Amino acid sequence: MKDYNRFSHALKETWRNMRYFSLLSFTSLSTVTIVLTILGIFLAFSENLKHLSRRLDQEITISAFLVDVPDEIRIDIITKLKSWDNVEKVTFIPSDQAMQSLEKELSLDMGKLISELGENPIPDVLEIKPADPSSIPELASRIKKEFPWVVDISYGKELVGKVVNLSRAFRLFAAILVVLLGSASLFIIANTIRITLYARKEEIEVMSLIGASRSFIGAPYILEGIFQGLAGAVISLSVCLSGYHLLAKHVNEFLPFLPILPAEAVFPSICLKVTGLGTLIGLFGSWFTLLKHFEK
Amino acid sequence: MIRLFHVSKIYNKRVKALDNISLHIKKGEFVFLVGPAGAGKTTMLKLLYRDISPTEGQILIDGRNIESLKNNRIPQLRRSMGLIFQDFKLLDHKTVFENVALSLQILGLPDSVVSRQTEKAVNQVGLANKRDHFPDQLSGGEKQKACFARAIVNDPPLIITDEPTGNLDPEASWDIMKLLLEYNMRGSTVIVATHASHLVDRIRKRVVALIDGKVVKDESKGVYSYEGL
After folding, report:
1. How far apart are CA A40 and CA A91, in angstroms?
2. Quick one: angle between helices B170-185 and B140-152, nearest 10?
3. pLDDT per residue as tens digits for the range B89-102
4. Above 80 in pLDDT, residue A17?
5. Which of A3, B91, B157, B168 is deepest in the core (most CB within 10 A)?
6. Which residue, among A12, A206, A210, would best test binding to B if mutated, counting the most B CBs under 10 Å from its CB?
7. Hey, is B138 helix, strand or coil?
8. How close A8 comes to chain B (CA, Å)?
9. Is A207's CB within 8 Å of B105's CB?
10. Residues A130-155: what's their mean pLDDT?
11. Domain boundaries, given as residue ranges, for chain B
């Protein structure tokens, strides 16, 4: 009951303090909102880039071309390939089927071309999907080395390299940005609470003289920090969500080939992250500042 | 109730504020602490409410050695005493009622109990009609009465006041002194550090005089005089 009364008092004090020092609270809330908005934008961008990267990964395969390979050897090659750790799937595409696909994709009359050339110029193909797209170059050279029947190998060498590099760079960038933005927010909240504590130095002294415990004195500041983090998160998420809807609409209209994820797929996890981070930086920002203040 | 054994306090390893003081204040006593500025009166009071610690010696309050108290036990010590200061130390953004109520809210008491007891204390000091006023809407005497109400609202057995009449006119000073005397008559211990010689001489209670950190006079029905000691 006593704890409930103290908590209820702390809540009232938090509200009263925020009203009394409204300008300071507003400045802090605005800054946290800006930082969390940047974080929200970044996370939305990150989710889409991950999605794009995953799609590219799925589409990248190695094509191993076979010419006049007897059936039993072809089956042996496929069996061996399937047993490799870094091979996820092997599909055999006979030359006739490959020709039909090409005919369909290019909308050409290939029959005419074949009659002019005398035979189907497209060889049988083994489409090999790697378990890990970053291992494609190694996998390709191993196939060429171990199977002399494979006359040629093709894979989007440059595209694979780009996707792998982009993915690595993005992960690094993401980690740095999260650390930087997180620290900046923590610093801002801590500084705001420090200014607030300084402005209320006398009040804290009076409370301490009449026998208030540190937790009683500190609770409204901790609650204020959490509230600022939470409110900042809610505002920034509203901004990000509206902005995302608008952007997605325009991208779908003008750049339809770019796969933009729907907001429903992106925002549940972003909401969780931004709200969680906002609350945590609010909590720790005020907590550390209070500890430092009481140590003096 | 309060015992000081060979207490000394040296600031910054150079300034000796108190020098080997031993003192016994019994429960229910009313004690004036007098002496010139810089004699060590405020230092002694600060030691009693553990704002500072002695360089040497021991201080017992109700048998407890307050020097050995851990930091998280200091609030409990302070809740057992009421403090009144010359500069009031009221919170500007709280009304008289809210300032007084704070002493009970820190105890975690329910709102109904806080309201009832605060009401009683505010009425007792004659500020019922100013209960919703903010400190800057009060006179010096009224501010000090609000401080008195805040100090006694949880009925502490000890009141410590540092120059409570320093900023007040004679009439307001006497009002505050009367409140302190009334509270003392109910059995509580009161310690008043003061320069108000006319009040000390009029009331004739125990007077402890300090000069250069030493007790130079301790009389049970004393007057305000330390010159020539």
Report:
1. 41
2. 10
3. 999 889 999 999 99
4. no
5. B168
6. A210
7. coil
8. 10
9. no
10. 83
11. 2-80+156-219
User: pLDDT of A179-209, one tens digit each?
Assistant: 787 787 777 777 777 877 787 788 888 999 9
Whether A172 shows a pLDDT value over 70: the answer reads: yes
Interface of B with A in 110-149 (CB under 8 A): 110-111
Interface of B with A in 197-216 (CB under 8 A): none
Mean pLDDT of chain A: 82
Q: Between the CA atoms of A42, A47, A53 and A57, what dihedral angle is there, to the nearest 10 degrees?
A: 160
CATH fold, domain B2-80+156-219, is Rossmann fold (3.40.50)
H or E element at residue A224 = helix A214-254
CB contact under 8 A, A16 and B91: no
Place of tokens 């109910």: B186
Three-state SS for A132-200 is CHHHHHHHHHHHHHHCCCEEEEECCHHHHHHHHHHHHHHHHHHHHHHHHHHHHHHHHHHHHHHHHHHHC
Do residues B42 and B193 touch, judged by C-beta distance below 8 A? Answer: yes
Phi, psi of A92 (to 5 degrees): -95, 125
Q: What is the ipTM of this complex?
A: 0.89
